[in-house]
């Protein structure tokens, strides 16, 4: 029986592992076989993680986090968790290869998945003009033209933030009915750099090495058009990866796992959560890392009190 098992190999999981390993909990971290390293593996330069004044490549940052976790005794398994039995003092983790592991506590840090448009060019140009995070990447678009896809509050927020850097920001929305709240809409649309394109759907992202334009289609009459831009920010939401704990833990209405106050404690004793799986607001590598530290400290205190 282990003391703790951590599920997820993003900044939340690895930071939890660093803290848990240094507290002599000998953690096992299950990293996934297909998406090990989490969201940061899909990006290029990360310029806002403290301690890297010249920036760091996303995959390199994850490797360093892993090395730091292993240095203190974390065991990392590149497998996928298929099922969790979380009730009672012994938590059972079943992997997709059939193996099972038991532990006294679980730190669940499986992140969240940004919703994609599912159009040609989107995956290929991710990190080369296609982005899901203005806070992360807005700085790279100083003096450029960018598009923001979406009509909710987060699209308005992303557009207003991008207007600090870009010369021109287009908000592209499928209908003429924006979901965003009045105040967010007014704030974005009163900015002279921001222009709203309604009844337009993005059909494809173009560019060889980096984004150069998008193909649009008019959702009323089907007429095509092209919009030249260097960045496309997709702001149509994100889904916490929680299918493994559905029906097992309590949830918030936005799909994140519910926790007790500012702690990482879930509705089940001995089960802690960290990172984007509990955070619909900030979704940053550093906030995920911070909550990984919180989860490990909570797990350590839970184990010490038993
Ligand atoms: P994740 O990093 O998503 O990690 C979750 C982990 O759980 C993954 O390893 C996944 O494989 C694993 N997992 C899921 N299901 C299972 C399972 N069943 N079994 C085993 N493992 C499982 N933030 C910044 O601060 N700066 C940036 O520059 C920046 N750039 C970004 C660029 C892109 C393209 C994206 C998508 C995000 C970016 N972010 C950036 C946001 C940042 O990456 C996330 O906020 C952060 O990675 C969240 O960390 P996490 O540990 O909660 O989840």
From TrEMBL:
Keywords tagged on the record:
Disulfide bond, FAD, Flavoprotein, NADP, Oxidoreductase, Redox-active center
- Record protein name field: Thioredoxin reductase
* InterPro entries hit by this protein: FAD/NAD-bd_sf, FAD/NAD-binding_dom, Ferredoxin-NADP_redctase_2, Pyr_nucl-diS_OxRdtase_2_AS, Thioredox_Rdtase
Q: What is the lineage of its organism?
A: Bacteria, Bacillati, Actinomycetota, Actinomycetes, Micrococcales
Q: Span of the secretion signal?
A: none
What quaternary structure, including any partners, is listed in this protein's UniProt entry?
A: Homodimer.
Supply the source organism for this entry: Leifsonia soli
GO MF terms here are: thioredoxin-disulfide reductase (NADPH) activity
Q: Which reaction does it catalyse?
A: [thioredoxin]-dithiol + NADP(+) = [thioredoxin]-disulfide + NADPH + H(+)
């Amino acid at each position: 029986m282990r003391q703790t098992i951590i599920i997820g190999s993003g900044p939340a999981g690895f930071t939890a592992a660093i803290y848990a390993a240094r507290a002599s909990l000998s953690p096992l971290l299950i990293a996934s076989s297909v998406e090990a390293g989490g969201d940061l593996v899909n990006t290029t330069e990360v310029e806002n993680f403290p301690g890297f004044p010249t920036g760091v490549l996303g995959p390199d940052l994850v490797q360093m986090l892993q090395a730091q976790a292993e240095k203190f005794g974390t065991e990392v398994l590149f497998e996928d968790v298929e099922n969790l039995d979380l009730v009672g003092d012994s938590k059972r983790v079943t992997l997709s290869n059939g193996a099972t592991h038991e532990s006294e506590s679980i730190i669940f840090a499986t992140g969240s998945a940004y919703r994609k448009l599912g159009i040609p060019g989107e995956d290929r140009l991710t990190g080369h003009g296609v982005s899901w995070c203005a806070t992360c990447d807005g700085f790279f678009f100083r003096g450029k033209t960018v598009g923001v896809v979406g009509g909710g509050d987060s699209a308005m927020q992303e557009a207003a933030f991008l207007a600090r850097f870009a010369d021109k920001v287009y908000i592209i929305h499928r209908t003429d009915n924006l979901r965003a709240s009045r105040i967010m809409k007014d704030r974005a649309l009163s900015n002279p750099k921001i222009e709203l394109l309604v009844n337009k759907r993005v059909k494809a992202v173009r560019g060889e090495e980096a984004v150069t334009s998008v193909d649009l289609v008019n959702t009323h009459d089907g007429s095509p058009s092209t919009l030249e831009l260097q960045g496309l920010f997709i702001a149509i939401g994100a889904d916490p990866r929680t299918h493994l704990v559905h029906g097992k833990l309590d949830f918030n209405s936005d799909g994140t796992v519910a926790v007790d106050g500012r702690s990482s404690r879930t509705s089940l004793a001995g089960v802690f959560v960290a990172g984007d799986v509990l955070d619909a607001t900030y979704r940053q590598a550093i906030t995920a890392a911070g909550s990984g530290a919180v989860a490990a400290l909570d797990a350590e205190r839970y184990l010490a009190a038993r």
